[in-house]
Design goal:
single chain, 137 residues, alpha+beta, Aminopeptidase
């Protein structure tokens, strides 16, 4: 399902749960995260509540995943925008679309974990800081 016809720039399209290949996801993640190693995304997407992808033409330029607990809570994961596309509002549009879709699928709360340098980005997405715990396994 296409969310919008295009971005303010006129040539990006956001879609809910589109078909995505491992090749294009690995290309996006590899460009965005230097430590990324090629992987199969099928098991991840199979467990997802939803995901939003952004394309410019045939190229995948953005992605955000949302997982849920089967009830009121959903979690934003893997917000990724290609380095060539950053600082144009695409990440905020992806996260807002993910929030809208999570709400439509029954979530009442949307959580996200982020590093301190991303606090202002997630603030623009409507999140407020909270105390939380994290344990590495």
């Amino acid at each position: 399902m296409v969310i919008n016809d295009s971005s303010p720039a006129g040539d990006e399209v956001l879609a809910v749960r589109p078909e995505l290949t491992d090749a294009e996801l690995n290309e996006l993640f590899g460009a965005s995260w230097p430590e990324h190693r090629a992987t199969s995304f099928a098991p991840v997407l199979a467990r997802s509540l939803t995901w939003i992808a952004a394309r410019r033409g045939d190229r995948l330029v953005g992605f955000v995943n949302v997982v849920g607990d089967g009830g009121a809570h959903a979690f934003v994961l893997d917000t990724t925008v290609h380095p060539d596309e950053r600082r144009r509002g695409l990440g905020v549009r992806l996260v807002q679309a993910a929030a809208d879709e999570a709400r439509a699928r029954g979530a009442e709360w949307l959580h996200v974990d982020y590093e301190p340098h991303l606090e202002s980005f997630y603030g623009r997405c409507g999140f407020r800081p909270t105390a939380a715990g994290l344990r590495r396994l």
